[in-house]
Every structure is written in structure tokens, then in C-alpha cells.
Amino acid sequence: MESSYSERSIQQGDKQRIIEEPSIKLKKAQKRLKALLGRIIIPNFVHNLGYRRSYVTNARSHVNGCIVKSLDIKKFFPSTPSRKVYYFFYSFLQCPTDIAAILTKLVTYKGHLPTGSPSSSVIAYYAYLDMWNNIEAISKSSGCTLTIYADDITVSGSTIPKGLIWEIKKQIHKHGLDYHKSKFYEGKKPKSITGVITLQGQLKAQHCQHLKRYNLKKELKENQDKKYKEKLIQKLGGINAQIEYIRKLSPTSQCEQ
Description:
Structural class: alpha+beta
CATH architecture of the largest domain: 2-Layer Sandwich
CATH class of the largest domain: Alpha Beta
Strand order of the largest sheet: 4-5-3-6
Radius of gyration: 20 Å
Number of strands: 9
Distance between the termini: 53 Å
Shape: globular
Strand content: 15-25%
Order of helices and strands: EEHHEHHHHEEHEEEEHH
Largest sheet: 4 strands, antiparallel
Helix content: 40-55%
CATH topology of the largest domain: Alpha-Beta Plaits
Number of helices: 9
């Protein structure tokens, strides 16, 4: 399967990220598998999978949280080994050993989940199903709201016990993963959750999105090249759609904090 992939590097901030892209034929098969796995009912705390769930619904779950803590798993897809994927197919889906092996080869690359595959997100969730369920139980017993969005873990509540985040980190380490430094928000200050701002019970688009829209509008007025203007209009439409989506999902009631 390795010959069915190509690698490219993209800039993310001050870092380079390697995208492991499957061929068109392989990607089609991975999309089909993702659609089939999408029929499985998933818990409400998972927001990167499922119908009408997104990075915005993830943020909305914490809109009334007076205290919000979040952390994300380091290199989640590259850190998910083939053996974990095989175990999911063999144990959870109860596939015969040969079928489990074939499906594992279908969705992995060089012994891990590829970063550019459409199936990696859903497979990564199921590969660590025990971990997610343990984290959810720990959060629930502490009276906190938990959500996950791919490799992002967010917990909120009126209070968050001191040991909760440490217990979550222990679960992550227990399953052979690592994490970035956790983020902490409290009170009436704006809270950034999966690219969306929560403020006084409302959802807001990030300042950078409004700035991009302003700059695109300005460039659109100044540029006379027809083809280039069409690209600008397309980009502007995408940003407008994102901002409108956030506005539509924002609660109408104000948060008492």
C-alpha cells in the first residue's frame, strides 16, 4: 500500500507538517469505509464524527462553562500504530483475522494512520475507544462537560477539580500517547475552543477570520484581474459561510458567569 501514497510538506505557523496523501483509488475505498463506520452510533461528547457535529458544536458545548481547560494529543495520527487499528477491526468489529489484516493495510501507512487519509479521524477514535470512554467517565464523575474533536480534548464546568486534568493526562500516557501543554480559561474572558470564541454565552468567529474577510474585500476592490477576482470571491464566500455558520449555532441566551 505504501506505493499508493505521496508525501508533501505544508507550512503551519512556524512548523512544517507532512501530509501523507493516498491515491485517488485508495482514497475512494477509505471514504467508503468511513461512511460504513459512520453508521455506528457515537457518544454525544464526540464532535468530529457524526451528523450535524462539527468544531462549532464542540465549542457550543462549553459556551456556559465558567472554567474551560483543554489539551491536544501530539501527532495523533502518526502516533496511532497499526496494531491498535488491527485490534479495533478484530476485537470491536469481530472481523476474522485475515479481514482485519486487510482492512488495517487499507487504512494505514508505514505502520501508522496517514495524516491525509479521510478515514484516519474515525479510525483514530475507535483505536483508542477505551481511553475516550475512561476520560468521559472521569469527567462525568467530576461533574464536568467533556468533548473531543479529533485530537482536541476540552473540559468545562462551574469548577474543575485540580486532579481532573492530571487523571486525563495519565489516561493519555497509559495508551502510549503524549500531549501538548494544556490551556486554561476562566471567568468572563473570551475562550478559544477549536477555532471558535465563546464569550458571555455566545459563539463568535475569531478576530483573524474577520481580518481575512476585511483584507479580501479590500483586495477585491483594488484588483482588476478577472480570474484572480474569481478566486478572491470564492475565498470570501468560504469565510462568510464560516462566520454565518458560527452565528447560526450561537445560543440566544446570555451566560450568567
